[in-house]
Each structure stands twice: as C-alpha cells, then as structure tokens.
Amino acid sequence: MRGSVVDVFFKNNLPPVYTLLRAGKESQIAIEVLTQLDAHHVRGIALTPTEGLARGAAVEDTGGPLKAPVGREILSRMFDVFGDTIDRRKPPSDVQWRSIHRAPPPLVRRSTTSEIFETGIKAIDVLVPLERGGKAGLFGGAGVGKTVLLTEMIHNVVKQHQGVSIFCGIGERCREGEELYRAMKEAGVLPNTVMVFGQMNEPPGARFRVGHTALTMAEYFRDDECRDVLLLIDNIFRFIQAGSEVSGLMGQMPSRLGYQPTLGTELSELEERISTTDAGAIMSIQAVYVPADDFTDPSAVHTFSHLSASIVLSRKRASEGLYPAIDPLQSNSKMATPGIIGERHYRLAQEIRQMLAQYSELKDIISMLGLEQLSPEDRNVVARARRLERFLTQPFFTTEQFTGIKGKSVSLSDALDGCERILRDEFKDYPEGDLYMIGTIDEAVAKKSSRDKS
To answer: Which pLDDT score is estimated for 381?
Structure first.
C-alpha cells in the first residue's frame, strides 16, 4: 500500500480492470482495479479512506464494476460516488444499478440539428449563444464568479426547462453543495433535480469517478425516458486534477506541467458521453477553473476542444464591478453564425464586439493622454462601448441577498433591442449609471423619467 494505491494478490481468477473490490471489517473500503500487474497481482486505487487496511488483509471481489442507481426514484435526492444517499433520508427502493463505465452513443444515433438555448442572461444570449444539447464551459480563475454564474443558470434554466437537471460537484466545497441544495428546495425545482457530490475532502479516486456516476444517471433519463437532461458540472478541472493525482500515485511518468500522460483520453471518455441522440438531449454547462489565469494550461486547452461555447470570465472586468464578468472578446460560440442565430442577431453581436475591441485599443491612449485628446469619432466609440458594457451587466436572483437588488431574467429579443438602441445613440444623453445593473432597456428610460419628474 502507498497512500490510496493498493496492490492485491489473487491466487486464481484475476479480476478485470474497473472491477470493484471490497476490504476492511465491514467491507467499508472500496478499491477500483486500474491495472493487472501480472498473473496474480492487480493494482487499484482506493475510493474511500484506507484507515484500518493492513498488509495481509482479505479482499473480496464484488464481481463487477462500480455501479450507480438509476430510475424515477433518484429525483430530488443527493448521492455520493457509490450511489449512497447523503441527504439523511431513506435510500430509494425502486432503482436499477448500472455500471458507470459505458461507451458513448454511436455516431449513427447522434442528432445533427442546431437549436439555440436561451438562459435569460443578456451577455450570454447576445454574444455567446448556447446550443440546446451542446456543451458550454465557464472558464475563469479563482473568485471571478464561475459558481455564481452556474447557480444563476440553474435558477433561470430549471424553471423554464421541462426536463431533468443533474448537478455534479467534483472536488468543490461542501458548503457550496449544502447551500445549493437549500436554494433549489426554496426555488421549488428540487423535484426534477438529482445531485451527486465528490467533495474536496474525499480521496482522489472518488473525485475521479463521481462525474461518471452523474453521467450514468443522465444517460438513463435520456435513453430510457427520452427526456432532455441538463447536466451541470462544477468543476471539470477538479476531475482532471483528481486524474493527475491518481496517475502520480500509480507511478506513471507525468507529461507537460505535471499532468497525467492520459489526460486527453480520460477527458474524452467523460465528455463524449455528453451528447444529443435521437432519444433525447444531454446539455451540459461546466465550470472550468483556470490555474493562475493561464489559458494555455493543458487542462484548459483540452477542455476547450470539447465545447460548443466557451464563456471566459475576466478578473479585470470583475474588479471594475461589471458582473457577470464575461470577457466578450475571448468568449466564443460555434452557434454564432447567421444561419443559426439569424442575420440581425449576428450583425449586432459582431458590431458590439467590434465596438468593445476598439474601446480596448483606445484605453492605452486614454490612460496616457486623457479622453479629451481623442477625435470626436473615437469619443463616440468610447461612449457607446461604455454604455454597452454597463447594459450587459445584470442583477442575479442568486445574489439578491448580498446586493439587495432584485434579480432579472431578460429575453433575447429585449436584450437585442437594448443593444441596438444603444448602438443607434438613443441613450447618449443618459448617464452611464442608468444602464448599470438593469434588466431591459426600458428600466433606464423609467429611471430618467422619474428623475425628470422629481
């Protein structure tokens, strides 16, 4: 034994890879076989703490891989990686148990239509439209608002979303899971939600497999019940990190920046199972922690390649108080083409990006020489860009208790109207503050008219 890595001797009938072994007094220690060393030895990773395990202890072969419970009964419940309930209620009775290791659906069964998925968040719907049945990533360093944005999406999407939502917490804080459970209960969306957690205090083996457990549950609702599933993962980087820890414990030589040599394969095995088939769709929104804000890190690069939309959160915008702190120039979506979102939406999104890009180029000149030294044309660009930046901020339902501002959900047509009117200079006489933290553009008009009356 070395840390979580356990070598087991079998006299005959060597168990295959991924078999679950049990050890300890009450079989409480779970070990997953990862390699067969020779004709009599296997090496596995412990999915639970290994206290009480000693050399020479008996190990039992369960005869199958790690399994997850599936069925209607799992709705509104909270599970760990083994499919055991952790919400202090009775375990569900009427469930089937399925292996968490499954192949992705074949290409023949995959859907090829593209449809837009509205979130009610202006900056996302206008600039980074999400695909129904696609995969979207929220990229950002520590403390820029990934989890807040994810919980806001849950709030907006689950209410309008008729399917099932599955939240998977990989290596994140236990407190966040408990708060999320309470928030969902209060919002009344828990009856259609399943939550699966492998928290940061658990061994790397458990964190590495919890994503597969959640996916197995999602696949049941997609394939057996033909329902649309919303899969929320917080945080996919912790899955890669757990894989790296397991790889190191197994004695594999690390590749670039200390990551496991099998990083691409492990991530693909998870991500390729998230897909839309002729039966139903699994749409996934994933938070991705970016180490040291370095987007060239292998974990971020490999994750980028699987996504249909990448929402990049910027520390600079967060420091300016522009929440959600989405960087419109770094974020992108494969949906943002005229054929899918329409000519008007595409043209407006390009115009907004161009305006914000020009403003970021002018920032150096403004900081050195001041705004007065710019040409009248450039001054107009700056004024429009600043108003657009403020209009694309939005008060969230999930942060009402901290900000005291009521949350707003804005439809795509209202968001596009607001951006178009700002680009047409309808609001050039309005103070910038009137456009900050509002929902639709009519709120700015209402602010000004109430000020004029007083």
So the answer is: 94
> Is 11 noted as a catalytic residue in this protein?
no
The crossing angle, in degrees rounded to 10, of helices 343-369 and 412-423 is: 50
Quote the tokens at residue 362. 């002018």
Q: What does 258-316 look like in DSSP terms, one character per residue?
A: G--TTHHHHHHHHHTTS--BSS--EEEEEEEE-GGG-TTSHHHHHHHTT-SEEEEB-HH
pLDDT of residue 162: 73
Model's pTM, two decimal places?
0.89
Can you give the pLDDT at residue 143? 84
Q: Which one of the listed residues 173, 334, 386, 421 is annotated catalytic?
A: 173
Sign of the torsion formed by the C-alpha atoms of 266, 222, 307 and 318? negative
Query: Could you say which of 43, 67, 135, 146 is catalytic?
Result: 146
User: Is residue 408 a contact partner of residue 395, using CB atoms and an 8 Å limit?
Assistant: yes
* 172 assigned to active site: yes
Q: Which two tokens stand for residue 359?
A: 């403003």
- Spatial neighbors of 117 by CB under 8 A, at least 6 apart, are 129, 130, 131, 132, 134, 157, 283
Query: What is the DSSP secondary structure assignment for residue 4, as one 8-state letter?
Result: T
Q: How far apart are CA 386 and CA 313, in angstroms?
A: 18
Q: What are phi and psi of 105, to 5 degrees?
A: -65, 145
- Evaluate if residue 150 carries a pLDDT over 90: no
Q: Which residues is 9 bridged to in the sheet?
A: 41
For 66-85, the pLDDT digits (tens) are 999 999 999 999 999 999 99
Task: Return the closest-CA partner of residue 31 out of 43, 18, 44.
Answer: 44
Q: In whole angstroms, give the CA distance from residue 353 to residue 420.
A: 13
| DSSP run (H or E) holding 91 | none
pLDDT, one tens digit per residue, over 10-55 is 998 899 999 999 999 889 999 999 999 999 999 999 999 998 899 9
Q: For this structure, is 173 an active site residue?
A: yes
Name the active-site residue from 172, 266, 271, 389.
Answer: 172
pLDDT beyond 90 at 168: yes
